[in-house]
Amino acid sequence: MSQTTTYDIEQLLQEWRINGFTVFEDFIPLETIDRIREAWIPIRDRDIQRQGEHPSRGRFRYNVRVPFERPFVNPEIFEHPALVEFLERALGPDYVWSHFDSNIPLPGTDYQKWHRDDGGALFPGVVTPVYAVGVKFPLVDTSEQNGSFEVIPCTQYVAHSDLPTDLDTVFGKGANRRGRYYPIRLNLKKGSLWVQDGRAFHRGTPNRSDHARDELCMAFCRPWLFSRWQHESTKAHFPRDLWESLSEHARQVLRWQRVKD
User: Fold this and answer.
1) Does domain 9-253 bear CATH number 2.60.40.1730?
2) By the 8 A CB rule, do 138 and 207 touch?
3) Coil, strand, or helix at residue 28?
4) What is the C-alpha separation between 50 and 87, in angstroms, rounded?
5) Which pLDDT score is estimated for 120?
6) Residue 232: how many other CB atoms lie within 10 Å
7) How confident is the model at residue 122 (pLDDT cuts 50, 70, 90)?
8) Which pTM was predicted?
9) Distance CA 138, CA 213 (A)
10) Exposed, middle or buried, 4 (CB in 10 Å: 0-12/13-18/19+)?
11) Which of 23, 46, 87, 250 is the most exposed place for a label (fewest CB within 10 A)?
12) Are the C-beta atoms of residues 166 and 200 closer than 8 Å to each other?
């Protein structure tokens, strides 16, 4: 990654606050992405085999936890000065990296239902400032052929209790859209990174290609957000040598992770 690349953080923050997402173009060098993907494929494939053909997100659509280890935990990505500035201004200077996930639609998957992440609201009917974001980067070019994300801008400000639980009845199921809503397809180049307010309505789309559309998601949040899974159900998993190689700031961001003895 080129540390000399200039990003207009104010512009990116404005886009994110209004639309619910923004994109850092050409953020990660392609050789870094390829190295991550090479290490990722066997981890992904083992867990896909374990989950079977019908995981919780729908047929052939998988979520696999990303291990907190090299090359996935890469300070050149999560400690890039532009991303650090963005997250400090979005979540506050004491933000924390909570978990590391992935989105993997395999060939043959269909539309997801329209949804929000994490239930969408801490207090039903009340719109709060953002408390968690997904920082995501695809491992391949994403397109309408291989199932890129579809997001409806500005919907992060809709109070959750104002709409039916089944959002497909509002926006339409699959390709059958209803009403005058204007989703945006996030067709991203490999090497791009995007930040999402998970409260914005979004969905995965069909993968009609011959390859998986892998995307890794670093989840960051405000430090007061409690996760029972994070605090009660995890074991020591973070490699000691990796921890000791990190900067003081990186350790602060990763302070919820449990370091091996």
Assistant:
1) no
2) no
3) coil
4) 34
5) 61
6) 8
7) confident
8) 0.93
9) 7
10) exposed
11) 46
12) no
